Amino acid sequence: MSKPDSSLSDVKTYLLDLQSRIVEALAAIDGKPFIKDVWQRPEGGGGISRLIEEGNVLERGGVGFSHVTGRNLPPSAAANRPELAGRRWEAMGVSLVLHPRNPYAPTVHMNVRFFTALAEGLEPVWWFGGGMDLTPYYGFEEDARHFHLTCREALAPFGDDLHPRFKRWCDEYFYLKHRQEPRGVGGIFFDDFNERDFTHSFGMMQSVGDHFLDAYLPILTRRKDMPHGERERDFQAYRRGRYVEFNLVFDRGTHFGLQSGGRTESILMSLPPVVKWRYNWHPEDGTPEARLYSDFLVHKDWTA
Known about the structure:
Structural class: alpha+beta
């Protein structure tokens, strides 16, 4: 479990560069710059939030970097490691959620993070986590297949077993249990990853982060200018409600941020700007909206 002394600096340097690269690429597509908000956390650390609202392509998007410390590991972070509860901790990562304006362009989420739990006289315990997943409102097989193939490509150099493991983990994690419904078409998700050694684990996390733009930008470029009307925007707002429900009820990152006294504006910048809920609503059979449920909100191998 030991790691080189320079590792924290190496991870931070990579994450700051990743945030800059992603923001630059997205701003070029949207045509509107992201605002930059540098903040400090009273208990320790801080971050940089990069945000776009009412853009030409992105109705709302946030790409956040954080490097924070704390005295007591929150329950959400120690859920799989109860022996670490109460330790001092240090965490850093990049997390993003993009909500395009066009209903045919899917919402996307990605994050990569590094965590260390510390205790006097004991060796630090570290791990990596993260992943990316796609949430369409109108499904396209070529989009889902491209996204999943790129995820598989990101993991391939680090072991043939990783993609099926992380794909299954994503399907199980991004699932609204109270509705018995997947949030979207999935992707990959991993946590508590510290296999082989630090160099191997860090390299895997970097590959996930580096493949995000390859996974998402071709999809956004294909869909951002497709003609649509009020019907499609209305359904998009309705389906965005599922995103809100998952983030507030189940998401471990949201819970960790709130439980650790994190900055609320940065934690909740992932939420969509326009959302609707309806009582007991179901799409009509045979419609494109119904096809989202029957053909895309199902667990399947999109790379086959």
